Amino acid sequence: MHAIKADVASHFGEGDLSVAAVAARHSVTPRYIHKLFETEGATFSEYVLTCRLEFAHRLLTDRRLVGRPITSIAFDAGFSDLSHFNRMFRRRYNVTPTEVRAAERS
Q1: What's the rounded Cα separation, in Å, for the pair 40 and 14?
Q2: Which of 13, 10, 103 shows the shortest CA–CA distance to 60?
Q3: Less packed terminus of the chain by CB within 10 Å, N or C?
Q4: pLDDT tens digit at each of 106 positions of the chain
Q5: CA 40, CA 60: separation in Å to the nearest integer?
Q6: Closest Cα partner for 33 from 10, 1, 8?
Q7: Pairwise CA distance, residues 60 & 92, whole Å
Q8: Rounded Cα–Cα distance for residues 88 and 106 (Å)
Q9: Number of C-alpha atoms within 13 angstroms, CB side, residue 34?
Q10: What span, in angstroms and rounded, lies between the C-alpha atoms of 105 and 90?
Q11: Residue 40, SS3 per DSSP
């Protein structure tokens, strides 16, 4: 499981990251990876989403990146759809990316 999570941590910024790609890199089946995550009470997709959102949050709170567009941060975190990013971010943090950025500026 550690190797699978490390792989995801290295590739979550790729918009096309899939369980099949991770499974192929580790010579296991996608179902095996799904079972590993089930033992932790999560899914592969939930874990990838968490990694992406945490990365985006870190970038949004980094004062050195205050001028970087939120769209760019979303894409770098592996999101291919800005609306989806905004919905997932708000669901996770109860604030919008813009609100997080504004709080860092003050």
Answers
A1: 24
A2: 103
A3: C
A4: 999 999 999 999 998 899 999 999 999 999 999 999 999 999 999 999 999 999 999 999 998 998 899 999 999 999 999 999 999 999 999 999 999 998 877 6
A5: 29
A6: 1
A7: 14
A8: 24
A9: 6
A10: 19
A11: coil
